[in-house]
Amino acid sequence: MAPTNPKSSKPKSPKRSISKSHHVAASRPRAARRSRSEIVPASEVARLALVEGERSLPGANLAGADLAGMSLRGCNLRGADLTGADLSGSVLLACDLRGARLGGAKLPDARVVLCDLRGAELDGAQLEEASWAGCALVEAQLRRADLKEGSFVAVSLARADLDGANLHEASFLLCSLSEAKLVGVRAEGASFALSRLPGADFTRAKLARARFVLAELRGTVFDRAAGLSRQSFRLVWSPAARTAA
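^ thats the sequence. predicted structure below, dont judge the formating
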């Protein structure tokens, strides 16, 4: 009878297999956490880049981003998507926002200075009590935007589309609204001083208590506008309204 080898009959130690399985199990949560952290909305990535001082983000996705109270200086946001973004109380200085999309964006109490928003889309944006100075909004779209009690100084809104916008008590000083579309705007108590409005269309606008002082109104359309009187015009050029075709 062959002798029994005591080493072969000894049961295998489970330590190695237990250690290996424990390592696999322990590594899974870390992998899961890592994969979850990698899933960050594009708008949040762009917002964090702005917070960290990045200034060049053309075409960035900032839709719905919370930028309230931020100070953006010299930023290139040309063609960026800021749809529904919150810029309440923010300061924008010398920013390039040409062609940017700001539909439904919130900018109440914001200060916008020396910014280029040519061709930008701000339909339905909330711009009440915002201050604008030295900005270009040429051919911008501000349909149904709320510009109530806003202040505009040396701002160009030439050929801009403001159909249905709220300009209640808004103030325009040294501005250009040449050929701007203002059909159906609510501009009760608005002030247009030392401004150019040749070819602007105020058809069906509500202009009670509105004032045009030292303004150029050559070819301006006031067809079916409500609330105008002689007191609405002070030292204006070509104050006679013409009827829209």
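DSSP finds two helices and nine strands in the chain.
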